[in-house]
Specification:
Two copies of one chain form a homodimer. By secondary structure, the first copy, chain A, is of the alpha/beta class. Chain A folds into three domains: 160 residues, Rossmann fold (3-Layer(aba) Sandwich), CATH 3.40.50; 168 residues, 2-Layer Sandwich (Dihydrodipicolinate Reductase, domain 2); 89 residues, Alpha-Beta Plaits, CATH 3.30.70.260. In chain A, 35% of the residues lie in helices and 26% in strands. Chain A contains 14 helices and 19 strands. In chain A, strands 7, 8, 9, 10, 11, 12, 14, 15, 16, 17 and 19 form an eleven-stranded mixed beta sheet that branches. In chain A, 54% of the residues are buried. At the A-B interface, helix 1, helix 2, helix 6, strand 12 and helix 12 of A face helix 1, helix 2, helix 6, strand 12 and helix 12 of B.
Chain lengths: 441, 441
Amino acid sequence: MQPVRIGLCGLGTVGQGVLRVLKRNGSEIARRAGRRIETRIASSRTPKPELDLAGIEHTTDVFQIADDPNVDVLVELIGGEEPARELVLRAIERGKHVVTANKALIAVHGNEIFEAAQQRGVIVAFEAAVAGGIPIIKAIREGLSANRINWVIGIINGTSNYILTEMGENDGGYGIALSAAQRLGYAEADPSFDVGGVDAAHKITILASIAFGIPLNFPGAHIEGITSITPVDIAYAGELGFRVKPLAITRATDGAIELRVHPALVPKDRLLASVDGVMNAVLVNSDAVGSTLYYGPGAGGEPTASSVVGDMVDVVRAMTVDPTNRVPHLAFQPDRLSDIPVLGIEDVATPCYLRMLAADEPGVLARVAQFLSDRKISIESVIQKYREVHDENGKRWVPIVILTHAARERDLNAALAAIEAMDSIRGSINRVRVESLDAAP
Amino acid sequence: MQPVRIGLCGLGTVGQGVLRVLKRNGSEIARRAGRRIETRIASSRTPKPELDLAGIEHTTDVFQIADDPNVDVLVELIGGEEPARELVLRAIERGKHVVTANKALIAVHGNEIFEAAQQRGVIVAFEAAVAGGIPIIKAIREGLSANRINWVIGIINGTSNYILTEMGENDGGYGIALSAAQRLGYAEADPSFDVGGVDAAHKITILASIAFGIPLNFPGAHIEGITSITPVDIAYAGELGFRVKPLAITRATDGAIELRVHPALVPKDRLLASVDGVMNAVLVNSDAVGSTLYYGPGAGGEPTASSVVGDMVDVVRAMTVDPTNRVPHLAFQPDRLSDIPVLGIEDVATPCYLRMLAADEPGVLARVAQFLSDRKISIESVIQKYREVHDENGKRWVPIVILTHAARERDLNAALAAIEAMDSIRGSINRVRVESLDAAP
């Protein structure tokens, strides 16, 4: 059979990983795919004389690849929303299949892109956009196709997971852990997309669509980063039997979908609690199989290239298929998506961890408990140890840590506003949701 | 589109699970597959008046399904080698696609079956044959298709894993744990295929083929069950920092493939060590992505049905595809399989745990160490606690536990034969291989 001709847009870490994998495993891949995959042309913004591009045309104009009649599959690794969106749409218009690792592109512009692809009869593959080298899109979209999916909970931002792991192990603060992550290449110079939760929100938006058959709804995602977590919170969580993990969650509730990214307390004995460092894991709960977990490296040149090249093989196989028989981009047939709304975060109910600084005087805890009780929020446990601090006026304050039972965010907000207004409470209350992972391994 | 018509052979736990899943999730599945999946006919050896088979023809002659011109896909859930083999070959001959959950059938007769399917241009799907509801065949065969796979290590027999977990937690012996497993429905009345390792060997034989592109080679598998493990071994392993797990292992070495099933010591801090009870997990190490892990229920009606029905959806999609563009049955194109030999177990090198009863007299440990050293086997650690036992003549014996560094089985056999021949060693030495899982999570 004819080789398949690839146009590689972007020669950064992942692009170089793709070239290495195709070179090293080319014959192994051809043994699987039944034909060779050839990189015909590659682009980067500036020439890359240090790379061995023997036999590969090079261009600094990425749109040349979209227009090249000798390219069958455009591989988009430039990242970001623009010009990636324009590039991918142009390639689709030219009848090319697309493989992309770009989560922002899919989460934000996926509906437009998939519609264009559908009309043109081409495939847009995006395994590498979520959880790097873990074949999680394939697992949910194809492996679990018999199931009604209940929820998906993932640790899908390696930078955040590394920082929280590091803070827990070395007792340093956020800044120290971030510096370590940057030194090791686990965090960008500007880490805000990772630690702020946007990256994980892009990914969970994609997983929600393929799990529940809804259009991509990135604006509906509730996003909180990990920067509010302190070593003190990690230590208290430990005393209570939990670890703090950066979670991305999507869950089907009655007539709505939860879609949220935030750090959370996870019981220590659950598998997700053992996923440390930069590693990723996705736990899927569905009606027939129950809970399955998928674990592996969520980033890095070759792990991401593994998914990109795996997509190439899939595309090669599906190219000649009648489009109606292909795996649908979002798992469900495009005319059978259902526009289930995202549940507002105020209506989400979870147990919650609360840490506050209270005046060291009688009756404060009782009044705090009363404000919670007024909103029907019950307390699971309290830690009040005598670790007093003195303020600038010599007044004594002590920390109180409370673990609540499940409470609606709206009720908790009201109760915490009332508690924060107390003279005997200093500053704001630090709160972290709890994911109890009942019925999960 | 026309519905796809299924013929369901076998109405046991899995068959009933398939019916339930198709009924409950039928519309969800059709939203994914683009057409409905209809069960036209089902078979069981005796009538099943207790089942709701409304709209489904019933037969006690399973071959009627293979011959039925109104069946597109034959689903084989009768288990065992015969008549399953004859049934599947007949269905293939009649041009039907086949979905099977039968690991014995695929491991032992897969080469013959896939050749027949290839010639007839039909698909034989077998996701449910390995690790129940975990989509591990799909993950390796498609998700990791860019990778050269180094090794696959799995806990893929839930019965054995439950028994070892139970023995570790409750300090009871093998018999007590087996009874508990049988009471809970985790073990058959005759558990020999599970605890003897044959079931896991069927499964790892299949995984070896799709990982390395070799024909199915069940006779090449080295098989040891878990029945030699005692609570004492589990306790000593714990002192040394290990847990005892029923592993199935296949690994590419220089020019050969390791293929073996046996219990092994696994370092406590590795993810595989935390896979308890009846749960399954498969750890795959490959060159591009590194280590990925897949975890979930390895048995049970609906988990297995999840994979069976998932295969149906795959078959529905691939039915109209030119066979040369389908995912090859064994991951690699049939004319590109390579017949790499299986490494004889005597040439496999692993660290080893040894427990022996030695006469309580000076110099015994020194002589034991010398016999090991004669074969270039070095010792990693020794536990010799004073827990003496007296034999029928009043002679005192003490247990010695030794952890060796990696040693070839052949050398270890020779050393242990020499040690067992010592007058100061009583009975035989209990030994368990160690899988150190270096470079694994």
